[in-house]
Design a protein that fits this description.
Shape: globular
CATH topology of the largest domain: Cytochrome Bc1 Complex, Chain A, domain 1
Number of domains: 2
Oligomer: single chain
Radius of gyration: 22 Å
CATH architecture of the largest domain: 2-Layer Sandwich
Mean pLDDT: 93
Strand content: 15-25%
Largest sheet: 7 strands, mixed
CATH class of the largest domain: Alpha Beta
Low-confidence stretches: 1-17
């Protein structure tokens, strides 16, 4: 069943090889396996990235991807949830999962001598989830509590409603957790059917980093997921370019939480590096414009930052800060002033140098552990069908010019914006 393409930076033929430590194989049915051999590491990270997220859900099943994320670690016919919990604690490891707009990830990190436990557990719950009625109902209540917690967290609310404004009527604007009504109404049969449709070989990437042998991992993954059919991948519909009206959510809290956002380039855009650098110098660190102007110089906010998100067909750039209600207008004015200056004059060479250097340092430091390297490889193969090497990434960041940043931010800020505010009644 194995048809590996080894030592390639892409899953298509005729592509030059990458670092010999990183290998990618495509198995029958489209299942992909990527490994990085790190012989001096004492830990192993294993992950399964499944190419389905909350943008792929029908409205009546909103939150089903996240529900599945909770359920899979509740066991299989051969191991209970308690078996898994005790097993991971017994080896001092870490086991977790998360759901995003376009994929769901399951991952574990264990000592190198416990690779069997980590990999076998992951493959088992992917292929043979128990879906017991008792666990299903218990997790429903856990997720409803998670939703309630999120409603009590103002910065969660402001970002959720900002997404609704940026993508009105589109799944990209929906809450990943779903809603109280959809989670309450989900049936075990509907969750199983969603799993059966999308947890298929063509839609799964297995990533392993540590002192491992690629061929051995490929053989074990192929055997462990042999019962899973090929299947397909979601066909996605791009959102309408319009954005919604400004949103104000009343909460009896001390601060007013403010977020504004714009549509930005998609994942594959040639401008993705320029938008990332521009977001960094705008509000990505202590020396960024917003941190210096909003917090350091004016004392308007304790927390202020900008962030960027990217999807297969669009992206977002957003700014967030929390301030005293009576200072909201001043905060907005300062943000608008900084945005206008970047569009009109572009960044200075020194701040551009700092932003690019920050990316380089953060990238290298962030890849010091097997878990982060595993996640990077999995995301690369799932989204791009190839591994973008660290050197390739850093080279692209270094090539970003002040003119690139000015042009891209000008294009983004020229588009319609969405605004969300959460705070005391006005």
């Amino acid at each position: 069943m194995i048809n590996p393409e080894l030592n390639g930076s892409s899953l298509s033929a005729g592509v030059s090889s990458i670092d010999d430590s990183i290998r990618v194989s495509r198995l029958s049915g489209g299942l992909r396996v990527v490994t990085e051999t790190a012989p001096r590491s004492r830990s192993v990270a294993v992950g399964a990235w499944v190419g389905v997220g909350n943008r792929d859900e029908p409205a009546e099943l909103a939150g089903v991807s996240h529900f599945l994320e909770h359920l899979l670690f509740k066991g299989s016919p051969t191991r209970s949830a308690q078996d898994i919990a005790q097993g991971i604690d017994a080896v001092g490891g870490d086991l977790n999962a998360f759901t995003s707009k376009e994929y769901t990830a399951f991952h574990a990190r264990v000592p190198e001598w416990d690779l069997d436990f980590g990999l076998d557990t992951l493959l088992d719950v992917l292929a043979n989830p128990a879906f017991s009625d008792a666990e299903f109902e218990a997790e429903r209540q856990v997720i409803l509590e998670e939703l309630a917690w999120s409603e009590d967290t103002p910065d969660d609310v402001v970002h959720r409603t900002l997404a609704e404004g940026l993508f009105p009527g589109h799944p990209l604007g929906w809450e990943v957790l779903g809603t109280h009504d959809t989670v309450s109404g989900l049936s075990a049969a509907a969750v199983r059917a969603f799993h059966d449709q999308w947890y298929r070989r063509a839609n799964i990437v297995i990533s392993v980093v540590g002192p491992v042998d690629h061929d051995e991992i490929v053989a074990r993954v192929d055997a462990g997921l042999a019962s899973i059919e090929a299947g397909g991948r979601p066909q996605r519909v791009a959102p309408d370019p319009s954005v919604g009206a400004d949103m104000y959510t009343s909460r009896a809290i001390e601060q007013t939480h403010f977020a504004t956002g714009w549509r930005s380039p998609a994942q594959a855009s040639d401008d993705r590096y320029a938008i990332a650098v521009g977001t960094q110098l705008l509000g990505g660190g202590w020396s960024s414009r917003l941190f210096q102007e909003v917090r350091e110089k004016r004392g308007l906010s304790y927390s202020v930052f900008s962030s960027v998100g990217s999807y297969v067909d669009t992206g977002t750039l957003s700014v967030y800060a929390a301030t005293a209600p009576e200072r909201l207008a001043e905060l907005k004015a300062v943000v608008d002033e900084q945005l206008a200056d970047l569009v009109e004059n572009g960044p200075g060479e020194r701040e551009l140098e700092i932003a690019r250097g920050g990316f380089e340092g953060a990238t290298v430091i962030g890849l010091e552990d097997t878990g982060s390297r595993m996640a990077r490889l999995a995301t690369n193969v799932l989204i791009r069908d190839r591994v973008v090497t660290v050197d390739e990434y850093l080279s692209a960041v270094r090539d970003v010019t002040a003119a690139d940043v000015q042009r891209v931010l000008g294009d983004v800020f020229a588009g319609p914006s969405a605004v969300s505010v959460v705070g005391p009644a006005r």
